[in-house]
Amino acid sequence: MRKNSIKNTRVNQEVLRELSQIFRDGIKDPRVAPMTSVVAVEVAPDLKTCKAYISVYGDKKAQEDTILGLQSAEGFIRRELAHRLNMRNTPQIRFVLDQSIEYGVEMSKKIDAVTRDLKEDVE
After folding, report:
1. Can you state the angle between helices 60-72 and 74-84, rounded to 10 degrees?
2. Could you tell me the domains of the chain?
3. Which of 31, 32, 89, 113 can bridge 47 by disulfide, Cβ–Cβ 3.0-4.6 Å?
4. 52, 38, 37, 41: which is closest to 4 by C-alpha?
5. For residue range 12-71, what is the model confidence (pLDDT) as tens digits?
């Protein structure tokens, strides 16, 4: 796997910051959950494509609706990104649901349950 260059890392950070701001201020689609955040962004070195990892607070239905809403608003998001960033190419965005936060919370609950059981066994 190739290491990201400094330029690519900076582009990733800028796209992440601007996407977060667009999500917060610009998207009016009712399918997009209000507790939606951009976790990470991977822009290809040629600046043609971009993977945006999205975290949605809610149930499975809210997550699916949010991804569908974002896919339908991709043109608007790309246009806003082009206005805000001075880049030669505005990347085509692919939204990927990131469930690492939910997984971390679930694992934390399991660890707490196991440690609670161990404490009860000791007493």
Report:
1. 60
2. 6-122 (3.30.300.20)
3. 89
4. 41
5. 999 999 999 998 888 888 888 888 889 999 999 888 999 999 988 888 898 899 999 999
